[in-house]
């Protein structure tokens, strides 16, 4: 049997809506965080630990100290969503204009200035592999990863087309203690907590 493109698109759309309904129904029921990637539902089963949450807090405060007042480093809901791509994500820190937060529903990922993730101990590949694939597909121009396991990170920029879809062309690695530039703003990374061995 041949599936016409419109049938395939409708089928993908139905599958995405089913996954989205499941994620919404599970969000307050099971521990951890649910997201939808190009590969399906992602469940980070571990509740965030103190080091993760303290890193989120310190990065948010440091970014907001150097950004203009109309730009915020948001650390909560709602998610960013691209229905046609079938992706629903919730970055740890979303750099976004306050005006783009108005209204109902999820955030349009193309309004984000940057997304910042702090890797979890339980599923670091979600940040280093899956989101590195999904975020340029969503049009998020800057993606920063902080890894408390190793005290290192990277900032990815310059989306360009590849045979496998949009990807970041530039990667700048850093170690904790160095200053790091995210979009137009440079912040220190000293005193960011590490996960215990």
From TrEMBL:
Residues 29-178 form the Putative restriction endonuclease domain. The keyword Nuclease applies. It comes from Streptomyces griseicoloratus. It holds the Pfam family Uma2. GO terms for molecular function: endonuclease activity. Keywords: Endonuclease, Hydrolase, Nuclease. InterPro entries: Nuclease_put_TT1808, Restrct_endonuc-II-like, Uma2. The keyword Cell inner membrane does not apply. This is Uma2 family endonuclease. Signal peptide: none annotated.
